[in-house]
């Protein structure tokens, strides 16, 4: 991958744009959400071994938490990264030197979104590991080399 070669991106976190942007915070927020998803999956799997009212209640809460954090990742990648940071090669503000780099960035971001969706649909920790791996790859664009 050439994502680590991309220059640090400039812009804003909203669609104004306001010019306020904290890439390390973005990466931290995504990784924190992934850690929460992983913990939720472990808890759901453990609690499901013995079904009673309390475990059912806690499982429901963990499922909701997992869903919220996966949705947060999808939203951050879509609204923060793709809408504001990943610009086509024709755009004068693009950080990409070639169409291939741009496409690689799109694919990397898409893998994170797909991974978050898969985590919503399952409680398999392997899916959370795959999400984490995809997020680490995507994060190369947002962290200093």
Automatic annotation (TrEMBL):
Pfam families reported for this sequence: Sod_Ni (PF09055)
Superkingdom in the source lineage: Eukaryota
Gene Ontology MF term list: nickel cation binding; superoxide dismutase activity
SUPFAM superfamilies: Nickel-containing superoxide dismutase, NiSOD
InterPro entries: NiSOD_sf (IPR036502), Superoxide_dismutase_Ni-type (IPR014123)
Protein name (record): Superoxide dismutase
UniProt source species: Spumella elongata
């Amino acid at each position: 991958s050439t994502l680590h070669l991309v220059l640090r991106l400039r812009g804003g976190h909203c669609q104004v744009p306001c010019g306020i942007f904290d890439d390390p915070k973005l990466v931290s927020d995504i990784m924190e959400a992934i850690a929460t998803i992983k913990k939720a999956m472990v808890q759901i799997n453990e609690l499901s071994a013995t079904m009673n009212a309390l475990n059912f209640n806690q499982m429901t809460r963990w499922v909701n938490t997992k869903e919220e954090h996966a949705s947060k990742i999808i939203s951050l990648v879509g609204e923060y990264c793709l809408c504001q940071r990943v610009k086509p090669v024709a755009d004068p503000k693009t950080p990409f030197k070639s169409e291939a780099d741009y496409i690689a960035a799109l694919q990397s971001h898409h893998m994170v979104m797909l991974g978050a969706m898969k985590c919503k649909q399952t409680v398999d920790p392997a899916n959370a590991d795959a999400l984490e791996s995809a997020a680490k790859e995507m994060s190369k664009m947002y962290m200093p080399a």
